[in-house]
Amino acid sequence: MTRSGKTIRLFTFQRTPVLDLFDADGCYRPTWEGTGIAGRHRIAYEFVGRHMCEIGLSDGLTPPVWAFEADPGELGLLATMLLSDHELSRSDYVTLELNVPEDLILRTSYGAWCELYFSCLETGRIEDDGKWLDCSPVDEYPSHTAQAILPYVLKKWILSVEPLKAPSLD
Question: What's the domain range around 48?
Answer without folding.
Answer: 8-125+135-163
